[in-house]
Request: fold
Amino acid sequence: MLKEKAKVMNEQEMERALKRMSHEILEKNRGLRDMILVGIQRRGVYLANRLRDIFIGLESLKVPTGVLDITLYRDDLTLLHDQPVVHSTAIPEDVNARRILLVDDVLYTGRTIRAALDALMDLGRPSWVQLAVLIDRGHRELPIHPDYVGRSVPTSKNEVVEVRVKELDGLDEVVICEREGS
Amino acid sequence: MEWRHRHVLDLDSWDRSELQHILEQTRSMDELLDRPIKKVPALRGKLVVNLFFEPSTRTRVSFELAEKFLSVDVVNWTASGSSTGKGETLRDTAWTLEAMGADAVVVRHGAVGAADYLAKKLRRSVVFNGGDGAHAHPTQALLDLYTAWKSLGDLHGRKLAMIGDVLHSRVARSDIIAFSRMGVKVELSGPPTLMPRAPEALGATFRKDPHDAVRDADIIYLLRIQRERQEEGMFPSLDEYHQFFGADSRLMGSARPDALVMHPGPINRRVEISSEVADGPQSMILGQVRSGVALRMALLFVCLGGVRQ
Amino acid sequence: MKILLHNAILFDGVSLFGKETDVAIDGGLIEAIGEADLRGGFDVIHDLSGKILCPGFIDLHCHLRDPGQEWREDLFSGSAAGAAGGFTTLVCMPNTDPPLDSPALVSYVLEKSERSPGSRILPAGCVSRGRKGKVLAEMGKMAKAGAVIFTDDGSPVSDTGLLRLALQYSSWLGVRLMEHPEEKSLTAYAQVNEGICSTLSGLKGWPSSAEASDISRGVSLCRDTGVPIHFTHVSAEDSLRVLREAKASKLPVTFDVTPHHLCLSEENVIEGGYDSVFKVNPPLRSRRDRDALWEAVAEGIVDAIATDHAPWHLDEKDLPFQEASFGIASLECAVAAVLTEWEDRGRPCSLERLLGLFTSGPASILPGEWGGAGAGRIEVGLTADLTVLDPELERIVNVEEWKSKARLTPWNGRRLRGWPVMTMVGGRTVHPVEDIDRGLS
Reply:
């Protein structure tokens, strides 16, 4: 059982963080040329869509946006408790020689990103891959580093960071929960 | 979701939501088949043995492709004959495979109940029934269901006409159960000597005239006619069969022009199907082959991908 | 040795007596029935309060596989199993290797039976030489040597001319013909009941008409020759229609039903995941057929319950359904299975009627000279073949403990109620073995 412990972000804070990140992304990628936004299933998909919408507002530019499911690339399936469910992968354009911005909600051990990189490479050869995450909670197990971070949150391994999005959860917020009885 | 079925032996106890889940998982796998690199590391380190007691190129190759695309280590074990009389018993074969570390066994056997038997004897490995006698062929039924769902969307309220040798067909048994559980009305037709005694127990009704069965059908499913049934005298001649029950332009004239035509393969042209129908625009036969790989990937992943102690 | 069976509820083969009764046994014979003087110098006194004392149970049909297939069962293991199951008399089928078709083999069984530890074993002889269905076996010599039934069981006598001849020829011997009713041209490769089970499983169907048509043929020959005929393991409602009519027209037709057809149906095959323990000839039938068998029992047209105990070695039975041998082993739980089913069905007939099917019913089919042992009655002067039932006792079937060599049965692990607790053959307690000297307390 998970028990909610603290709220890290509310709706406004989440929006501010995404806006700040989008400015950083624009700055670093000069006009978003050749870029494809790729959200990692499932909540990364909605965050990627938010960034796309912000870019439309800022630059009147619609960046192609896709979704990536990494279930088949995970190395921790036997550690998961639920039956893994494969979602779809749909990237609207060929990834070869493109700049890919991977978007995920929480960066933790780095294994999801490792799997995402493998999945991406099987689709083609991007020229450059960057990573944007809303929350970096530390505890990396692989040499993976985000390029854009909404907020770094120190956590213990017993805690779970939950990013909630309107589209799935009815509201935008980030909370820290703690496993009870473990 | 919690997956209840350790083995895939038949579809008797599968409910609609479980069938739906597999359809959706198959769609994800189907997308994978469009990619330049189809292989994913999902089941790396798993060992699957394809244990075939009956020759079957299609099912075996389909399973093998699915396994390879999921990075499974595959061993093909072709055994011959029955376990009685000569050679090793199925039980000993099963234990041998398990001792070699098989995580799963795909079994095709001529005896009804062989897959159930294997599942009872194996302590660790998962059993996939690749066809047991005339009993069940669950992966064929699921791939057929997927093929229809992909084309038609929600299947509830649709109608399937199945023509041919239902009596001796494991494909028919599993398909009737799968489709009717998804809310599809199933009507059978064919020579009465090739019909089961109690089709209603499967959830199907028998129509004497195949034209009545195909009328208003969304899917027309043709079963393979084994030549030996004619030799056994179950019907007088292949030609007579074709004239009355074969899917040709005459029979298709009674059907809707957009009805899907399906067949588990391999097809007997000029027996259960004419070339114009087999190669025509309504034919889903090659689509079924592709669905087979995707479906088997989905099943393998669902049964072997999660936690299972 | 003088034995007193004290305070039992007596079933004499026909009627149950509510009042507790004593039965005294001396020298292997029933010496007295009624209230005994307990100071009468008995060597052993068994207190049977709450238990039912019955004539020894008779099984008209079991396969003891001896000679020739002793890895499946032999006369000793079969005899011990019979005693443990409450049977004092077993009729063993002649489908042995070689088939029991000669007086020498009849004598072999009887001699071995003399030395066997439990139930007495009476041989059934073949109708045809070599059980091949071509020419008559030496029925006269076999009858003289002690064969009590003639049958080619495992197969029918398919040749109608031969069956007619056999009926005519056996008429002077006083030994009844038992037909295994099966029209073979309807059962080639058949595995399960034709109906729901064949439809769902894809296994080849075994139609009821395969049984009913052969019974019609036999009834017709019985009418023609006037010679009695017995049909064994009748399983289908269609057959019962033919038999009911034959009995109504007073033909000397008798038949038995099995515990498995009374207790199980084709659904067990499906629900059991095609477990080969449910594979039997004739196949487990529909629920409707099973109900019809009980209706026939209640109606009183059934003559006997016979087990068709068919033991196999594990390697011949523990196989995928389609490859496994036909046959259900049940000697050691048949009585309890039937009593449990009878109770579960809300007692569709009287207990007397049910017990009669194990005692006076089968006895009436055996030759007249078996007036002593295997008589199915309790009377002063008769051989003390007795079975004691505890109608309240509940036990879980554990095939590992069986005296039979069979290690598979549909009832393994099932809790059954109403068990035979003591079996006495000729005044000797053969079950439970350990109580021979101590007596039941």
Observations:
- The two ends of chain C are 18 Å apart (CA to CA).
- Residues 3 and 361 of chain C are 27 Å apart (CA to CA).
